[in-house]
Predict the 3D structure of the following.
Amino acid sequence: MNNDQLKGKWMQFKGELKKKWGKFTDDDLQQIEGDYDKFVGKIQEHYGDKKDEVLKWSDHWHQQAHQPKKEHAGSRQR
């Protein structure tokens, strides 16, 4: 994920981020406000030893958020 991608999905992302990685406070989220460099800095501050894991999770979240919803086989209209 890059800076533009984070800014575009910030409102959705910050809720999921706080749920998954509970050390992020409301103040942290307000300071980050969609800025990727600040996001990485806060990861380092709170999760230095798990930085790669948090970044991997954020990339995975972004990929999932941009995939089109798949139809269920039984819900197709004929």
Summary: The radius of gyration is 15 Å. The first helix runs from residue 3 to 8. The mean pLDDT is 86. The chain has five helices and no strands.
